[in-house]
Amino acid sequence: MTEGGSRINMWTWFYKLASPPYAYRTAEALMPWFFAVAAGMIGYGLIDGLVFAPPDYQQGDAFRIIYVHAPSAWLSLFAYSTMAIAGAIALIWRIKVGHAVAAAAAPIGASFTLAALVTGSLWGRPMWGTYWVWDPRLTSELILLFLYFGVISLRQAFEDPVRGDRAAALLGIVGFVNVPIVHFSVYWWNSLHQGGTVMRLGKPEMPGSMLWPLLAMLCGFMCFFGAVLCMRLRGEILGRERQSAWVREAVKA
Amino acid sequence: MMRTNFWQMGGYARFVWPSIGFALCMLLWNVWSARRHYARALLRVRRALAMARSEE
Amino acid sequence: MSVGVFRAMALILRRELRLSFRRPDQLLQPLVFFLIVTTLFPLALSPLLSLLRDMAPGVLWVAALLSSLLSIESLFKADADDGTLEQLALSGQPLEAIVIAKTLAHWLLSGAALVAISPLVATALAIPAAAFGTMLASLALGTLTLSWLGAIGAGLTVGLRRGSVLLSLIVLPLAMPLLIFGASATDRAIGGENPAGAMLFLAALCLFTCSLAPLAASAALRITLE
Asked: Mean pLDDT of all residues in chain C?
């Protein structure tokens, strides 16, 4: 401890998490809490959104798809960002836990992207008359799905897992350019997909009775992502730390 | 009345319910897949430890 | 006697060109592929000139993309196989400079060559001569960007078994914005509209890629080589 008492700040937490056993134990501890909050938020969000929120003036009851579509899309971007940033941290500072986080986040993010595309397609059919349209947001979201597949495949293609991790991290960073394109595409181009309603500066356009369940679903999906990430992270860390002594104790429990 | 209205979703039932359904399936798949991933990692580690112990 | 960076780059560029010209059949392969692929579309879709004109920009660009992918794997593979790549990396010259020289050579041999024969293909696809200027400019910028995206992919996958499929899987999603703007620029020129907007975007993409891709490609090589 330094003189003047211990200075525990944000970076202490960061350094601690860089240690695989600490990250493993933290993931295990946080998991149930993430699941509990996620279940509560998603439960409330679905019930309030599907039953109690009033139907939209223009879209009728079809707008309720937003309660699964918007959170999925948001998480698809958030998961990719997590993957890219964790990979970058792992590459730059040589922190192996970063690679474990990136590897864990990838399949989760890909599934959210698929859900965003499918629910969006089902929403588009009654609203725009077509299941698919090549507008910037949909196209860049589809590209995001391909980028996920690329990163996952690249990691698995290497026989040496260390090299595979590094190559996948680099690819994740290169593909990160697409993330702001997906988000800002609705502002940069006029197209079929509606502009931002929630993520804007100033007051959101949606009335409260519709907005609260949406925010709850967003929060619920985020916590769900955290929960599943923790689940996968344990396995990823175990796989990378098989030789270490602490693993022996951890798997006995 | 409210009940049937709910399931009909104002006529959009065949779009709304499959969407909700797909999203829920995706959530469930994530949990199942993560569990399987952890179980397999655990198995591999235990096997490696057992082999190391038997070699001693 | 130590060699300066630019002299080293010139030497590598000359070496690449000389080696490629020793195998003229391999040199022509991407060009022939380009011609064949552009022929496929009128055969499969419609030989009607008016319809061809509509799909010409897309056909041109997809064919350029695919033939670029075909040749990019050879960027590092031959040198990686016989150990030259490691020697180059250890030579003391900055890896970025080596990568720039090699990628430039690749572009001259495939992309620039493609641009050169594109008027031929454009005529076959009923693109009006007035649009040629924009088409050539957009293809030049686009193939250069593609060479760089391909260099990143090649750096990541050199030495992998089944690397070529993975290479395409990696490069194609990255190349999609390029495809959109490139085809759009040519399309506008054909329609008589001002292509400046799309061309500026294309130029910006090219500039962005050319400045950052050397760093990414050499980082990829360092990962593969160490």
From this structure: 90
- Written as one letter, the residue type at B11 is G
C197: which 2 tokens?
């907007």
Side chain identity at residue C52, one-letter code? L
Question: Any idea which residue has 């079809």 for tokens?
Answer: A62
Rounded (10°) angle between helices A178-188 and A66-93: 140
> d(Cα C36, Cα A151) in Å, to the nearest integer?
32
Instruction: Give domain status of residue A39, yes or no.
Output: yes
More confident residue, A176 or B53: A176
Task: Show the low-confidence residues of chain A (pLDDT under 50).
Answer: 1, 4-5
Domain count along chain A: 1
CB C115 within 8 A of CB C140: yes
- Whether residue A17 is contained in a domain is answered as no
Tokens matching residue A10? 């944000």
For chain C, how many structural domains are there in total? Answer: 1
Quote the tokens at residue B54. Answer: 């038997």
Task: Fill in the DSSP letter of residue A55.
Answer: P
Measure the CA–CA gap between A213 and C71, rounded to whole angstroms.
Answer: 52
Interatomic CA distance for residues A216 and A201, integer angstroms? 20
For residue C202, give Cα distances in angstroms to A35, A38, A234, C177.
45, 43, 44, 9
Residue of B3, B19, B56 best to disrupt the A interface, most CBs of A under 10 A? B19
Give the distance from CA A120 to its chain's centroid: 17
Query: Most B CBs within 10 Å: which of A122, A217, A233, as the mutation test of the B interface?
Result: A122
End-to-end CA distance of chain B: 73
| B26 lies within 8 A of chain A by CB | yes
CATH number at residue A109: 1.20.120
Residue type, C48: L
Q: Is residue A10 part of a domain?
A: no
Structure tokens at A227: 């929960």
Angle subtended by helix axes C49-72 and C74-82, to nearest 10 = 20
Higher pLDDT, C132 or A61: C132
| Angle between helix C5-22 and helix C24-44 axes, rounded to 10 deg | 70
pLDDT digits (tens, 9 = 90+) for C87-106: 888 888 899 999 999 999 99
pLDDT at residue C7, as a whole number:
93
Residue A221 to residue B30: CA distance in whole angstroms: 12
pLDDT at A253: 59
The backbone region for A194, taken as left when phi is positive above 0, alpha when psi lies in -120 to 50, beta otherwise, is beta
Q: Which residue of B has its CA nearest to A71?
A: B23
Check A157 against C173: CB less than 8 A apart. no
